[in-house]
C-alpha cells in the first residue's frame, strides 16, 4: 500500500517535531492509523490527564477530514460517550489546507475551552450550564480515574 506523499510528509514532521503535550504515532502495519496521546492542558479540568485517541486518515484525505475519536473516557460537553468529538473542522469546516497537526492542536484547545452551547453530550452540557463548578469537579474526577497513567 503506497501512501500519498502528503501523508508521509505530515507523519515525518509529527514525529520529528512534535507539539508539546501531543504524541501521534502511526501504526506500523497501517500508516493511516495513528495512536494519539494528548495531555490535558494546564489550567483545565483535564490537567494531569493523558487522553488516548485514535486518528484515521480516510482514502479521500486531505479532501476529507481525518476521523478522530477519544478512547479514554472524558467528561466534556463536546465529546460523547463513544468518544466522538464535536469540532467544526472535523465536519463542515474541514479544509485540505488543514493537517493532522492542526486537528490535534484544535482538539487540545477544545479541552481548554469546553463549549456547552454546541454540545455532543447533552447531559454533560446541561450539567456544565446549570452548575459549571460541579461539572468541572466531575471532569477532574474522571481525569484522575480514567486518564492518569
TrEMBL record:
So which domain of life are we looking at?
Answer: Eukaryota
Q: What SUPFAM superfamilies would the database entry show?
A: UBC-like
Gene3D superfamilies cross-referenced by the UniProt entry: Ubiquitin Conjugating Enzyme (3.10.110.10)
Nucleotide-binding keyword on record:
yes
Which keywords does this chain's UniProt record carry? ATP-binding, Nucleotide-binding, Transferase, Ubl conjugation pathway
Q: Which catalytic residues are annotated?
A: 86
Q: Which Pfam families match?
A: UQ_con
**EC number(s)?**
2.3.2.23
Q: Which GO terms describe its molecular function?
A: ATP binding; ubiquitin conjugating enzyme activity
Could you confirm whether the keyword ATP-binding appears in this record?
yes
Listed InterPro entries: UBC, UBQ-conjugating_AS, UBQ-conjugating_enzyme/RWD
Kindly list any coiled-coil regions of this protein: none
Give every UBC core domain span: 2-148
Q: Which family does it belong to?
A: Belongs to the ubiquitin-conjugating enzyme family.
Q: Which PANTHER family match?
A: UBIQUITIN-CONJUGATING ENZYME E2 (PTHR24068)
Q: What is this protein called?
A: E2 ubiquitin-conjugating enzyme
**Biological source species:** Absidia glauca (Pin mould)
Lineage of the native species? Eukaryota, Fungi, Fungi incertae sedis, Mucoromycota, Mucoromycotina
Originating gene: ABSGL_09900.1 scaffold 11783
Amino acid at each position: 500500500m503506497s501512501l500519498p506523499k502528503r501523508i508521509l510528509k505530515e507523519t515525518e514532521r509529527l514525529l520529528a517535531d512534535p507539539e508539546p503535550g501531543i504524541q501521534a504515532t502511526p501504526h506500523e502495519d497501517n500508516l493511516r492509523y495513528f495512536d494519539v496521546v494528548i495531555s490535558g492542558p494546564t489550567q483545565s479540568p483535564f490537567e494531569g490527564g493523558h487522553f488516548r485517541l485514535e486518528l484515521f486518515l480516510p482514502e479521500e484525505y486531505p479532501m476529507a477530514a481525518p476521523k478522530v475519536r477519544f478512547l479514554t473516557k472524558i467528561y466534556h460537553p463536546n465529546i460523547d460517550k463513544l468518544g466522538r468529538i464535536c469540532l467544526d473542522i472535523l465536519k463542515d469546516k474541514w479544509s485540505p489546507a488543514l493537517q493532522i497537526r492542526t486537528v490535534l492542536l484544535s482538539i487540545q484547545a477544545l479541552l481548554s475551552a469546553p463549549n456547552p452551547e454546541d454540545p455532543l453530550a447533552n447531559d454533560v452540557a446541561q450539567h456544565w450550564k446549570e452548575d459549571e463548578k460541579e461539572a468541572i469537579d466531575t471532569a477532574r474526577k474522571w481525569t484522575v480515574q480514567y486518564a492518569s497513567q
